[in-house]
Amino acid sequence: MSTKFTPFTKSDSVMLLIDHQVGTLGFCRNISRATIVANTRALARVAAALDMPIVLTSSQEGHAQGLLIDDVQQLLPKAYEARVKRGGLANAWSDPHYRDAVLKAADGRKNIIMAGLTNDVCIVFPSIAMVEEGFRVQVVQDAGGSPNAIGEAAARRRWENHGVVTTSTNQLIAELGVDWSTDDGGKLIAIAFEEVISHLDEM
Fold this sequence. Notes:
Elements: E1 13-18, H1 22-25, H2 33-50, E2 54-59, H3 70-75, H4 77-81, E3 84-86, H5 96-106, E4 111-116, H6 119-132, E5 136-140, H7 149-161, E6 165-167, H8 169-177, H9 183-196
Parallel strand pairs: 1-2, 1-4, 2-3, 4-5, 5-6
Helix pairs in contact: 2-9, 6-7, 8-9
């Protein structure tokens, strides 16, 4: 059954980057590290270029997961300082501090753009939970990954069965850019070329 396509825009969307940590990055085997980092950089730059609200979170930074990757720290210094450091809840949406931070950043917006590590644990549960609370959610699948292809496929089936939309970094950039001839479009196509297209040989 088809539904009307209503694209996300910079004015009605919030960006959530979940657990892009140095250790967690190493847990992903279905997609290359270079792909995840390049696409995460692209998402961070898109949010900054469009002045979109963005919330960062990490899990157990003092354990194997480690700190958020340097790229996120450098591109989003204010958001990094304000990151929500979770104690270990796998479903970030279950953490009241994270939930409060997202709701404050959203300020009534109902569209959520989400990416993180790993897709089969740290993305599948909050994405479903947020849809159940009335948000429209898109998961940028190629800015995250899973320990294996089976886990990745299972996560995608599970979140899509609950109404979460799967997208890619390039597809999202085009959706938000709308028209490459505009100021915003020009900024976003430059990000796409610098962070995604130029890294294709590494992916």
